[in-house]
Amino acid sequence: MDFEVIYGKNSVLEALNAGTREINKIIISKSIHTDNKIEKIKEIAKSKGIVFQFAGKDKFQQYEEFNHQGVIAQISPIRYIELEDFIKKNKNKETFSSLVILDGVEDVHNLGAIIRTCVCAGVDGIIIPSRRNVQVNATVDKISQGAVNLIPIIKVNSLINAVQTLKENDWWIISTDASAQQNYYDVKYNDMNFAIIMGAEHTGVSKSLLKASDFVVKIPMQNNFNSLNVSNALSAIIFEALRQKLI
User: Fold this and answer.
1) What's 111's domain CATH number?
2) Which of 102, 141, 188, 240 reaches 20 to 30 Å from 4, CA-CA?
3) For 210, phi and psi rounded to 5 degrees?
């Protein structure tokens, strides 16, 4: 098996706790001071029979540009979920489900932040296209603080086909667009299974997906200054959906 490398205490700890990916080896720097998270990593690794070893600075030289915190792990690639399997699994839930669809997000920091936000807000899954969108890698894992291990991520060849499949299975599609007439807080999110489409940093949601959507919403801005990046915009919308669910 080809293993990837993840780095940082939180990423490694979450991967250990989640148990959804095979961890080949954990390497801890000899030069860092131990703390509660390091001790927890060692404790869980021991309990699961995962090898961990201590190494000198030379082992970490190739990761100097990253904030590895003196901990790296060799781990199996993330397991993407099939859309049909996700729909089937969520079909008989007692509560409505939610998805976030990413249409051409190009920045690893945005993707990592989006994944972390989705986990915090209780989103049930994330859909990304196999092309023209950043994929999950070690940087995304680190920025998400290991949240990539806590939410189903679905990779599809065609977003428009995925949207049609969702609509055929009683999902409602919500797109975001700065020129929309409806504000995001006017939608009743807790009355339906819904998927929110967030567009690329510069081009927004594609016209074909806007056309296929049941709702198109905007975040109202002051001073004609439309500068929220995609991860911040998603946070506003998805936590409004959570607020409605909790009241």
Assistant:
1) 3.40.1280.10
2) 102
3) -60, -45
Measure the CA–CA gap between 239 and 218, rounded to whole angstroms: 15
The continuous run of DSSP H or E covering 119 comes out as helix 108-121
Cα atoms in the 13 Å half-sphere on the side-chain side of 169: 21
Contacts of residue 226, Cβ cutoff 8 Å, sequence gap at least 6:
178
State which of 53, 75, 97 marks the end of a domain. Answer: 75
First CA to last CA distance, the chain: 47
Token pair listed for 154: 């679905």
Residue-range definition of the domain harbouring residue 139: 83-246
Same domain, 47 and 99: no
DSSP3 helix / strand / coil % (the chain, rounded to 5): 40, 25, 35
Helix H or strand E encompassing 72: strand 71-75
pLDDT in tens, 35-78: 899 999 999 999 999 998 988 877 887 777 777 888 999 999 88
Nearest to 199 by CA among 85, 105, 64: 105
Q: What is the pTM of this model?
A: 0.87
Confidence of residue 225 (pLDDT cuts 50, 70, 90): low
For residue 169, the tally of other CB atoms under 10 A from its CB is 14
